Amino acid sequence: MELSHVLSRSKLILASTSPRRAEILRKQRIDFEVISPEDIDEEKISSDPVEHVTQLSRRKVESVSHKVQEGLILGADTIVVLNGEILGKPMDQADAERILKKLSGKTHRVYTGLTLMDKKSGRIFSAYDCTEVKFNELAEEEIRSYIATGEPMDKAGAYGIQGMGNFLVNRIKGNLDNVIGLPMQKFKEIVKMITETIKAEN
Description:
Layout: H1 3-9, E1 12-14, H2 19-27, E2 33-34, H3 49-65, E3 72-82, E4 85-87, H4 93-103, E5 107-118, E6 124-135, H5 140-148, E7 169-173, H6 176-180, H7 184-201
Parallel strand pairs: 1-2, 1-3
Antiparallel strand pairs: 3-4, 3-5, 5-6, 6-7
Helix pairs in contact: 4-5
């Protein structure tokens, strides 16, 4: 079943305020409504990257589900992982500089977890994607100039590959939209899973 057909019959609610995720959906010509998830305590989330992103994406969905009567609720969470260490959004400019210096010249992984809930049936599915990203060797001046633009401050790993931060990246192995924050192939897969499950039950 085509994604556009499914979403023409079910309202999509994006449980995220990320402008990058919204832009990916718009480029796919998908209509959606944004509902901001509540603040979620990440201290109690698993340190395993896959469990971390899938748990957080699920909690985002659950945090807005009581505000929704019907439709499909989509939550997503993206992290950068270097040598087993999860690098989230920087706390301040000094933290952004610390993160970018760590990533300089190295290969890291970007994980995005997705969770989709059908509000009417209560059915919920999660999935994740992973992309390898190799950074260029960065000079301190390059890092500080980039931080001065303000772009790194609201992004996992302190960079935006789709924006000015593109110069940081040497190459990627995997899906670019996963690094941006919403892997569309995985999204299509969980839409198909939830649709086929509901169809089989009716």
